[in-house]
Amino acid sequence: MRHSIIEPVEAPAEDRAAVIRDHIRNAIVDRRLGPGTKLSEQEVGALFDASRTVARAALQMLSFEGLVRTERNRGAFVANPTPAEARHVFASRRVIEPGIAADACARIGPDDIARFEAQLADESRYLALRGPEARRSEIKASGDFHLLLARVAGNPILLRFMEELVARSSLVIALYGRTGASTCGHSEHQEIAAALSAGDAERAGALIMRHIDHIEADLDLNHKGSTALRDAIAV
Amino acid sequence: MRHSIIEPVEAPAEDRAAVIRDHIRNAIVDRRLGPGTKLSEQEVGALFDASRTVARAALQMLSFEGLVRTERNRGAFVANPTPAEARHVFASRRVIEPGIAADACARIGPDDIARFEAQLADESRYLALRGPEARRSEIKASGDFHLLLARVAGNPILLRFMEELVARSSLVIALYGRTGASTCGHSEHQEIAAALSAGDAERAGALIMRHIDHIEADLDLNHKGSTALRDAIAV
DNA sequence: TTTGGTCGGATTGCATACAATTCGTTCATG
DNA sequence: CATGAACGAATTGTATGCAATCCGACCAAA
User: What pLDDT was estimated at residue A182?
Assistant: First the structure.
């Protein structure tokens, strides 16, 4: 009944650009769109039955999130992070996530714990499956864990920062990931959730830190940086 | 001569929307545009001799930064942060800035130290002046100190986050600031810079934390939250 | 084969026209 | 006087047209 006053009965003419943005972002995070893929305004618009204006707005949003790189008079492309950018992403996560874990620890409640359990169950399920499709879902779920953590922390600003960082991490892993170290990640997620449930903020922070270390250690961030002239002389 | 290859001789047809965005952002941070001010697309466009399309793009950027709130079919307004949002801003800074200070400590060099000194000198200069004009410059310079810190840290992602947080802080201070506690802030900036120069990351982090505490303590975040029905029943 | 130049298609940047929505005003009614 | 409906001005949401720009194909010359 509590919906009757606030929530409109029908869809409130949702922002179409945001819908397009969400679809494309999911496609990028799920690796259905590889780094470097061209995203033409006309094509995107046609795909969602919208004009270039709306498609352009969606691409602009994605460009703010760092998932899409736009070049003037050339168009928008799925971002192709350099190793340096990849390191920046993880350095940012090292700065932010321990603090988020501490906040989450202070605010976590029974229903949050239930959400964590559901999340971990999802991860286990995907982990059991095989094939590229399952692997994509697994990466997605792994990111969702960190977003759940941020949501529990209860700070919308930090949540938005984490959304950006998690999405960019997916791109980085797609580009530089070596193996399925995500299996190792799952048990770490369990430990983190346990520390949170126990209210041990310090331990949760330390575990998160180690977890990020492990994710980054599984990347191959050397010599892939395309020794192109362009990068060599880049200012 | 090193400019001859990379940098174009003429201005490279800079993005006009970004120019508009920067102007409006400065106006907001400098308090020339107060919270709640309507920013009509037509007016903004006319002011910069551009069409609504470009003005709209600029407003969209500012909306992503949290400086402008857009309501569908109603338009864009300078953000009017609630006390809760204000607390989120400072909570985010508490999470991020100590980490930035640590990174800055690890990378700081002689030229950076010189920049800090120049920055502190600027602050002193504005502090000596009187009048609302001087006070605006003072607030701006105070924010610039934190941005310089983030720039020295060398992580573009965290720098962008800090740009957003500093800008929103200005709004919050404009709304809820009590007195000129910024004077107290200046000596703290000096201490922080000293700790950085000495390479004492731990002390720098602790000082930053206390500094943020002091800034927030000078705010009056109670009972100003407009006990409007709208907020009372907000989901 | 490689280098340099020109042309044409395709795409973006921007301005503008039209449709949809909102809000203040006016006015009729209880 | 208070309430509510209806109208109209103003503003935003969206589509589309035109000019500017870029890129690849093609071709000529060394």
Answer: 52
The CA-CA-CA angle for residues A160, A166, A172, to 5°, reads: 140
Sign of CA dihedral B24, B25, B31, B33: positive
Which of 126-165 (A) contact B at CB < 8 A? 155-158, 161, 165
Q: In the structure, how far is the CA atom of residue B195 from the C1' atom of nucleotide D29, in angstroms?
A: 66
Domain that holds residue A43: 16-78
Domain boundary among B43, B78, B113: B78
Contact B196, B105 (CB under 8 A): yes
* Residue A42 and residue A141 in one domain: no
What's the pTM value of the predicted model, to 2 decimals? 0.91
Provide the token pair at B207. Answer: 């000082």
- Alpha carbon of B196 to those of A177, B103, B114: distances in Å? 35, 10, 12
Looking at per-residue pLDDT, the higher value among B158 and A183 belongs to B158
On whether the CB atoms of residues A53 and A129 are closer than 8 A, the answer is no
Per-residue pLDDT reduced to its tens digit, B106-116: 999 999 999 99
Out of B6, B88, B94, the one facing A156 most closely (by C-beta) is B88
Same domain for B111 and B72: no
pLDDT digits (tens, 9 = 90+) for B135-171: 788 888 889 999 999 999 999 999 999 999 999 999 9
Structure tokens, B159: 């720098």
What residues form DSSP beta bridges with A78?
A68
Q: Is residue B229 part of a domain?
A: no
The tens digit of pLDDT for each residue in A17-73 reads 999 999 999 999 988 999 999 999 999 999 999 999 999 999 999 999 999 999 999
B4-63 pLDDT per residue, tens: 333 344 455 679 999 999 999 999 998 899 999 999 999 999 999 999 999 999 999 999
Nearest CA in chain B to A102: B95
Q: Do A122 and A153 belong to one domain?
A: yes
Cβ contact A95–B95 (<8 Å): yes
